[in-house]
Amino acid sequence: MLDKAVCYVNGWLQSFRHRLYISQTYLAWCSKKTNASWWHAYAIKHRPWRPHVCVPCEWITQLVPSSAYIFEVGCGSGANLIWLQQKGFQNLGGSDIAASAIEMCNLLASYYKTSINTVVDDALPPQISS
Ligand SMILES: C[S@@+](CC[C@H](N)C(=O)[O-])C[C@H]1O[C@@H](n2cnc3c(N)ncnc32)[C@H](O)[C@@H]1O
């Protein structure tokens, strides 16, 4: 019984750890201005409920030095990169095929006063190189 309670509390605490705090008005404004898919605002707002990204990001914080360059292919509006920036990572980059998502990522990066090296690119035949 106690282990279940610990598990529940742990999951609840983790949801705070993975949350991105942002004004909902600003988030809605970003969506409208960039015309990015509604999904990108959802990904920012509901980040803790996307464990398939939260868990590997947690691994990164534990296994990768914060000086490393982290590049996310298909970064969308940058929810994961922004979260990593808040955990101390400063060398961040990402690509996405959707120009609107990258535009939204750039607006969000300025909201969080960070800089993300973004590029619009199709990851299947990528035009960028390291
Ligand atoms: C499910 S979203 C995930 C976004 C982000 N990784 C996150 O977890 O919040 C998938 C993203 O991949 C992008 N995408 C799909 N095909 C792509 C491709 N061929 N090259 C680059 N990005 C692509 C989409 O535009 C979309 O933003």
Write the layout of secondary structure elements.
Layout: H1 2-17, H2 24-34, H3 38-45, H4 51-63, E1 69-73, H5 79-86, E2 91-96, H6 99-111, E3 117-120
Parallel strand pairs: 1-2, 2-3
This protein binds S-adenosylmethionine (SAM).
S-adenosylmethionine binds at residues 43, 53, 72, 74-76, 79-80, 95-98, 101, 122-124.
Overview of the molecule:
With 130 residues, the chain is mainly alpha-helical. The protein has one domain: 3-Layer(aba) Sandwich (Rossmann fold). The chain has helices at residues 2-17, 24-34, 38-45, 51-63, 79-86, 99-111, and strands spanning 69-73, 91-96, 117-120. It has a three-stranded parallel β-sheet, with helices on one face. Strand 2 (91-96), helix 6 (99-111) and strand 3 (117-120) form a beta-alpha-beta unit. Helix 2 (24-34) runs antiparallel to helix 3 (38-45) and helix 2 packs antiparallel against helix 6 (99-111). The chain is globular. It binds S-adenosylmethionine. S-adenosylmethionine (SAM) binds at residues 43, 53, 72, 74-76, 79-80, 95-98, 101, 122-124. S-adenosylmethionine binds at residues 43, 53, 72, 74-76, 79-80, 95-98, 101, 122-124.
What would you say about this model in short?
By secondary structure, the chain is mainly alpha-helical.
What is the CATH fold-level name?
Rossmann fold
Contiguous runs where pLDDT drops below 50 for at least 5 residues: none
CATH architecture: 3-Layer(aba) Sandwich
Which structural class is indicated by helix and strand composition?
A: mainly alpha
